[in-house]
User: Fold this.
Amino acid sequence: MQSYRDVFAVESSEEYERRHRNMCSGGKREIAVHVVLGNRRARVDHARWLIDCGCGSGAIIDTDLDTPVARCFECGAVHHGIEIPPRSERREIEAVLDARGDDRLRHWIPPETIADLRAENTRHGV
Ligand SMILES: [Zn+2]
Assistant:
């Protein structure tokens, strides 16, 4: 699995927030960082927890936080109120996906269950 730390080469939630803010205002871009409240559903895409932002881009979720937040580098949105499984369930999902050899095969979409993912692994000889 890849966390926001891997994707953005940052060490912490604070650094991720700074990186987002700096990317939105700097160089040629000037995008307003803004909060979006809503129940966007988290999913795993290519081994990354993300949500689909309203702008059409994917926003990587900071899953280190007790209340996960997703940041969109395309439109500046900071998504709160994400619908995401609790940490313990995420760890189970990640363990089943980690058994797959390749990030390109690591996907989860609600309402898939752990049993669904395990069955998928079994069907593919994992
Ligand atoms: Zn966006």
